Amino acid sequence: MAFANFHGLQSLRISSWECIFNPVSGSTRSNTSNNRCSSIKACIKKPDHDIHLESKINSILESVKWDEKGLAVAIAQNVDSGAILMQGFANRDALATTITSKKATFYSRSRATLWIKGETSLNFINVHDIFLDCDRDSIIYLGKPDGPTCHTGSETCYYTSIFDSLNKSEVEENNLALTTLYSLESTLAKRKEELSAPEQGKPSWTKRLLLDDRLLCSKIREEADEFCRTLEESEDESRTLSEMADVLYHEMVLLIRRGLKFEDVLEVLRCRFTQSGIEEKNSRKAKSLK
Questions:
Q1: What is the pTM of this model?
Q2: What distances in angstroms separate CA 48 from CA 12, 29, 178, one per listed residue?
Q3: Model confidence over 206-224: pLDDT tens digits?
């Protein structure tokens, strides 16, 4: 098997025992059984765990079906929102660097060099996991961006809708590709922005909620109670789904009212994956006592 030389990992072409010599002496690397070594040397043994990890990473790199140019498509996806942030290309070194640095790294075809997303803008994509597709010829970097991903300043590089271009005379310049939940959030955020404009006719229900904290909180409590009663009273599944939709909508209005994003909630949930509910509650108590 051919092993790659890449940042953060040593090549496995030599044994785990290595002799390091004083470069001034002019000595070269050699077997410890002869006397050609310099008197100034240090022999270290690489931990078995590191050797095993290097071997596994090299095995993964070998398993990827790189194209004739040694590249594979690499897609960056937001670990919390699920948004597709950008698409680039990776070679062996780019993937290996991403594994070891946890920073999304790509290969620039135009400059023929590696580049770390964020090395200029500081909007790094912090990688939490990496996935290969079923054919092992494309890669997903699942991570959390430090800021806008696109060089235009857009949150993602995908904001031009083909269907909008076909069906509308005027196309929004920054219509991000959003899933259902985030389309709702975007609409609610627009309603909040419209509050400063003169109102024509009756305000929408969303605007009424944004303008009246007491009304908003009473509706959340009401909808939460109706949602629970679908279980207590054994109502049909469609009723449960409908009430959950009501709860989610009203709670998202409250988040928008507070200037928060649903993605922030998902990040909190992700951070709780590694601790029990009891531990999480106790940590809240500890924080409140400080």
A1: 0.72
A2: 12, 21, 46
A3: 999 999 999 999 999 999 9
